[in-house]
Please model this.
Amino acid sequence: MKISLETLSKDLLAGNRRALARAISVVEDGGSDASDLVKSLFSYTGRAHLVGITGSPGVGKSTLVDALITEIRKSGLKVGVLAVDPSSPFTGGAILGDRIRMQGHTLDKSVFIRSMANHNQAGGLGLATYDAVRMLEAAEFDVILIETVGVGQSELAIAQTADTTILVLMPGSGDDIQAIKSGIMEIGDIFVVNKGDLPGANKSASEITSSLELSSFANDWRPPVIVAVSETGQGIDSLWSSLQEHFKFLKESGVLLNRRKAKVQAELAELVAARARENLKNSMESSDSVQQLLEQILDKKVDPHTAAEGLIQDLFRARD
Ligand SMILES: Nc1nc2c(ncn2[C@@H]2O[C@H](COP(=O)(O)OP(=O)(O)OP(=O)(O)O)[C@@H](O)[C@H]2O)c(=O)[nH]1
Ligand SMILES: [Mg+2]
Model:
């Protein structure tokens, strides 16, 4: 039975978990249902603390998320988790692993865990992630943890989606050195050297600290470096304190507003580009003048660059 979007949003606002799960599926599928749902729930969004957790495969992000849920729940806040699989919708393995790892919370009604396959953009988190976050916010989740594997661009994408980004590293992997070299250090608001029970954790932490001391920052926040053992929960209390401190800093300094503005701009650009691409494809196939233009290019009467320029001017003038 297909329930209406109106019922769906009403149920979601009333705290119905099945409605929340369905709503996330709707926004994941995109299209006009997704737009309508976001439209009806938008006024309930924007209140949660969005925390991105990124780092190389296997550093312990999911284990850390699991431990962090336990810690945050002590304060009574509701925690939503989105585990975004950046590779393909078909790698169910990692997603299944995450589910099992976070299973301890399945009976807790104030915890909601969802895996999302990120089909649309390689590296990017995708438009659906923004909207899935909104569904969780409308359902009154206070902290939303977004886990994604750090593979180049996705670190940047998560930093664009989250208010606070946690960069997770582990000792002895050369990860820290790699991070320092590649410049992804810049996206970390908080650094966690996980697997602190393994040799070299303190050394890694001090290397990161010294490289941070040499860095310049865009604002007054100085990223803390925390050694943690996610498997036992050690260090997770201080991670949670740092998260709260960072959120407070963001709000009081006005940085939160700037970050969210940049985020909205990125989302808007993505939305417009996606729509434009779709419209363009349709209209190119049906428009006579475009067909003529194609002929002209084939006849070498006009080059593709000039033709594209003309087309863009036509398109935007037509919409003014
Ligand atoms: N020794 C040790 N092992 C850990 C710790 N935390 C996680 N692990 C182990 O590291 C492995 C990977 O953990 P995950 O939490 O799945 O790592 P992940 O970063 O989420 O992995 P992907 O999502 O596949 O990128 C598992 O075998 C964990 O048991 C820790 O604090 N100490
Ligand atoms: Mg994981």
